[in-house]
Amino acid sequence: MVDQAQDTLRPNNRLSDMQATMEQTQAFENRVLERLNAGKTVRSFLITAVELLTEAVNLLVLQVFRKDDYAVKYAVEPLLDGDGPLGDLSVRLKLIYGLGVINRQEYEDAELLDGIA
């Protein structure tokens, strides 16, 4: 009887989890659109787009590396610093493309956007 009650509740839990994820996604998209719309020129739009791209690439790169605090602080962060070997957006894009984190179309689009701005 308890198992039936739990099975009955699980779809609602999954539904609420999906709804929470959708709400988080919508909130993130809204923040992105607000930042893009804040600029008054095409140039400011492109600069903001590259900044957003850089933030997204940084998150993807961090997901590839070890997750423990020590490794991130002493091994990963120095690689990503401006003068580190992965300091350049183009190099980070090549890394995540080479590791299969993004596909070719995404890589080419990101490189194009980086080249425009």
TrEMBL record:
Which Pfam families does its entry note?
MtlR (PF05068)
User: SUPFAM superfamilies in the record, alphabetically?
Assistant: MtlR-like
Signal peptide (residue range) = none
Superkingdom of source: Bacteria
Which InterPro entries does the entry link to? MtlR-like (IPR007761), MtlR-like_sf (IPR038026)
PANTHER family noted in UniProt: FUMARASE E-RELATED
What's the protein here called? Mannitol operon repressor
Species per Swiss-Prot/TrEMBL record: Escherichia coli
Gene it is expressed from = mtlR_2
